[in-house]
Specification:
The protein has 725 residues and is an alpha+beta fold. The protein has three domains: 267 residues, no CATH class; 108 residues, Immunoglobulin-like (Sandwich), CATH 2.60.40; 305 residues, Serine Threonine Protein Phosphatase 5, Tetratricopeptide repeat (Alpha Horseshoe). Helix content is 36%, strand content 15%. The chain is built from 18 helices and 20 strands. Helix 7 runs antiparallel to helix 8 and helix 7 runs parallel beside helix 9. The N terminus is likely disordered.
Length: 725
């Protein structure tokens, strides 16, 4: 490339000598003619802003500067200028502008100035728009004229060559100088498309450099190099899914300026498939039919054929950009699920092989090596890269045999189980933290009764609880879809624990599993409705847990193998919340009869021989703390409370004395009062629930529930605040 050919020599301006008698009637032709010329128009990159500088330099037939430069400025933020009638030494002029502009890709005003030029013959037109296209073709015009072309010939050739680089040659008859963003026609579409490709993700300095690179490249031979074509292809790929933002930015900017502009359908001004013609890939009336809508294989796999009738070109892969310059992302045939690999050594995942030839889609799947049903999706794209056909594929599970061992958690499974338990620990810890201060179990200055709707700790506890149950809801949904139904009871049990605490604290809450979708706030349910729902869910999973004792240093595998005693205590606490102690008693008694646990001295902060479910309290709640969320002392005191409620005071006294003796705490012989003393001194969770069941604590009626956080009420249509708040 000869850079000398494309440099604009700057010559000293010479004063105009005498004017001819025809200076008021300038003519066309190939030779410069002095006279008075009318000049107005727009400068658009997006539009240049008010006050941007504009200059008009007369040129001779070799595009060399002659005469006096005329200077002016843009008069409004839409980029408009009107220089009126100006006296120039030639009808050939170089119009140059410098200024800030609106970036239609980012939607913001530029932070730096941009320099744009246009070479025009004012004998042909008095209205001139200066834009990206006039700038890009100017060096090519000068090069061609220096090679002997007339201005008209050079301008026409440069216009065609430039637009051809973008597949827009069908619009060559509209001069770049006549194109405007605000016109709403094809010229607008062409200008916006090329401008956006140059602006995309570039700083002001990078835009200036890129414009210079493309202009010089075109000037040499009327075509871009492969490297520049690659840059355009990469930028074009970005706009496949972002044209709506571009259109919105333009309309919004002009609306701010008091103008309503129409933006044409920009899809038609990009050469999406790189065949050299923009817009021919688009079909807004596709007619596609399949001989079958889905494919189902038994565990042995197989091959299926689908006849596809279509009036658009379809492919298994997204179309590549010119010269294969982009690594196109092809959608995986296997549905992405964050529970894939939940179990260890479950065999290879479903593998789908597909071909598409002569309107026949062939899908093959080998036999299943997993004991869970798997799904995948095969898609066909049109030439725009849009999915036009989506075929669900399913592979039934390999049946389990008696010799198959119990499945172990895989890496993904361990991460999910650990994350779920961590969210449970956070929710229980925040609720316990607020409970300790609210009940006076521990004196906090930041949490106490009464509490208000804007209390920050109450909000943290509420949000943490919903974060835990929402996470488990998503896990349960994914496990069900992936065929891992046997894993669901663990996550169901954890949600029961959280919901039971939430009902105790806030009363009427929402059950996320019952919401219409993943984005809708669940409807508020009464406390009794929620508790009956929990009772039912516990019944559904009653046979899914084995007998045993959970270590206090349990791993994800241990936690996932949750012992039946945790389920029993969960069931007992639901019945206690329902004021049905006689129904709770059998589950508590089963734990006692198992003889797996014994009482030890000390409170229930730390793990001991009586720990049933141990929780590491997150540092953000209480640094360095732990909690025996379920303990043997808790079981005995619950059972004592049930015996008092059912008239067996002697049995209750015996159970109370067991705990008091082991913990070395004096009691008075007054059953409920002694249970309160022990629960408070041992820091046993759910102390608030115990107080309310037995009308203790001296709370006002409304204080038997905490306020639902104000932001939750604001975002939850149909929810009502608890009385008194």
């Amino acid at each position: 490339m000869n850079l000398k050919k494309i440099l604009f020599p700057v010559l000293a301006a010479v004063a105009l000598t005498g004017c001819s008698d025809k200076e008021d009637e300038p003519g066309g032709g190939e030779k410069p003619q002095s006279g008075k010329y009318q000049l107005s128009g727009k400068v658009e990159k997006g539009p240049f802003v008010r006050g941007s500088a504009i200059s008009v330099q007369p040129l001779n037939e070799k595009m060399t500067a002659i005469g006096t430069v005329f200077n002016g400025e843009i008069r409004d933020d839409a980029g408009s200028f009107d220089l009126g009638q100006i006296e120039l030494a030639s009808q050939f002029v170089r119009i140059a502008t410098d200024g800030y502009y609106f970036n239609e890709v980012s939607g913001d005003l530029s932070t730096g100035q941009l320099h744009l030029i246009a070479l025009v013959d004012l004998s042909d037109r008095s209205t001139v728009n200066v834009n990206i296209l006039t700038h890009l073709k100017s060096a090519r015009i000068q090069n061609l004229m220096q090679g002997g072309k007339t201005f008209a010939e050079a301008d026409k050739q440069a216009q065609k060559e430039l637009l051809t680089q973008f597949g827009l040659q069908s619009y060559e008859s509209t001069p770049a100088e006549a194109m405007s963003i605000t016109s709403g026609n094809d010229g607008s579409g062409v200008l916006i498309a090329i401008s956006s490709l140059i602006l995309n993700k570039r700083s002001d300095a990078e835009i200036t450099q890129y414009l210079s690179t493309l202009s010089q490249d075109l000037a040499d031979d009327g075509a871009f190099t492969d490297d520049n074509k690659k840059s355009i292809a990469i930028d074009r790929a970005y706009f496949r899914d972002n044209l709506d933002f571009l259109t919105s930015n333009i309309k919004s900017r002009y609306q701010e300026l008091g103008q309503t502009v129409e933006v044409p359908d920009l899809r038609y001004y990009f050469d999406w498939n790189g065949d050299g013609i923009a817009g021919n890939e688009i079909n807004d009336n596709p007619q596609i039919s399949l001989s079958r809508e889905s494919v189902e294989f038994d565990c042995n796999g197989g091959t299926a054929k689908i006849i596809v009738t279509s009036n658009v070109i379809l492919s298994l892969e997204k179309p590549k950009d010119p010269d294969g310059s982009l690594d196109n992302i092809v959608d995986s045939s296997v549905e992405d699920s964050f529970v894939s690999g939940f179990y260890k050594d479950e065999g290879a995942a479903i593998s789908v092989t597909s071909t598409y030839e002569n309107g026949t889609l062939t899908i093959s799947v080998p036999k299943s090596e997993r004991h869970t049903k798997q799904t995948a999706t095969v898609v066909l794209y049109d030439q725009m890269g849009e999915v036009r056909v989506s075929v669900p594929v399913s592979l039934e599970a390999k049946p389990r045999t008696p010799s198959d061992s119990k499945p172990e958690l895989g890496v993904q499974g361990k991460e999910i189980v650990s994350a779920s338990f961590a969210k449970l620990a956070s929710s229980l810890s925040w609720m316990y933290y607020v409970e300790r201060g609210y009940t006076g179990m521990y004196k906090f200055y930041d949490v106490q009764c009464p509490m208000y709707v804007y209390d920050n700790y109450n909000r943290k506890a509420f949000n943490s609880a919903y974060n835990a149950v929402a996470f488990n809801k998503q896990v349960i949904k994914s496990l069900k879809n992936a065929g891992y139904s046997e894993a669901i009871p663990y996550f169901t049990l954890l949600n029961v624990l959280t919901y039971t605490e939430m009902v105790d604290k806030w009363g009427n809450i929402g059950i996320v599993e019952l919401s219409q979708d993943d984005y809708t706030v669940p409807a508020q349910q009464s406390a009794s409705t929620t508790l009956r729902y929990l009772e039912t869910k516990l019944d559904e999973i009653s046979s899914c847990f084995s007998e045993g004792k959970l270590s206090t240093n349990f791993t994800a595998d241990d936690a996932f193998d949750m012992p039946k005693d945790v389920w029993r205590l969960a069931k007992a606490n639901v019945y206690m919340a329902l004021d049905e102690p006689s129904h709770a008693m059998p589950y508590l008694q089963e734990i006692v009869d198992s003889r797996r646990y014994s009482l030890s001295s000390g409170n229930e902060y730390d793990a001991n021989t009586g720990t049933i479910l141990f929780v590491q309290v997150p540092d953000e709640v209480m640094q360095g703390h732990t909690m025996s969320y379920y303990s043997y002392a808790d079981v005995l005191l619950l059972l004592a409370e049930c015996n008092i409620a059912t008239g067996n005071a002697a049995k209750a006294t015996s159970l109370i004395n067991q705990v008091a003796k082991a913990k070395n705490i004096s009691v008075s012989g007054n059953g409920i009062a002694d249970i309160e003393t022990l629960r408070k001194q041992l820091f046993i969770p759910r102390y608030f629930a115990f107080q309310k069941r037995n009308n203790l604590g001296g709370y006002a009626s409304y204080q038997h529930l905490w306020p639902i956080p104000s932001d939750q009420i604001a975002m939850s249509p149909g929810w009502t605040q608890n009385p008194g708040y």
